[in-house]
Amino acid sequence: MIDLSQQGLYVERIDVEKTFYPKADDITQEWVLVDATDHNLGRLATRIASLLLGKHKPNFTPGVEMGDSVVVVNAEKIQVTGKKMEEKFYYRHSQYPGGLTTTSLRQMLAKHPERVIQSAVWGMLPHNSFGRRLLRNLKVYAGPEHPHQAQSPKPLA
Description:
Blueprint: E1 31-35, H1 41-53, E2 69-73, H2 84-87, E3 89-93, E4 100-104, H3 105-111, H4 113-122, H5 129-135, E5 138-140, E6 154-155
Parallel strand pairs: 1-2, 1-6, 2-5
Antiparallel strand pairs: 3-4
Helix pairs in contact: 1-4, 3-4
């Protein structure tokens, strides 16, 4: 090994900062109750995605599941701006020729209001196994009733 200081070159020692990685004991996951009544779909989905990722916590670390579990009630009372009720479509394909099915936002809210919020939040999460794992912490219900009273979810301010 060559010692550069003997050759007249100045070598400065660099201290490397360690990256913080939370331990399992440092992670606290809570339950949050969100009432979707008269909330804008996109703005609410952004807030829910942030809660699921854990970005609201001071020890947030990307790629670590440290977010909260979110219970959304009254999904059928969500609001959208503009003409989205008629112009926003959800697409499915059966993998057969001519198998494309389109459903408008109005039809989706009438039949499956939970899927509207779940689809909007999924669009704001990472599209990989980490995002799929986070989406399991989202519970959406069309009406005001939910079966998670035992977890005593705190209402979102």
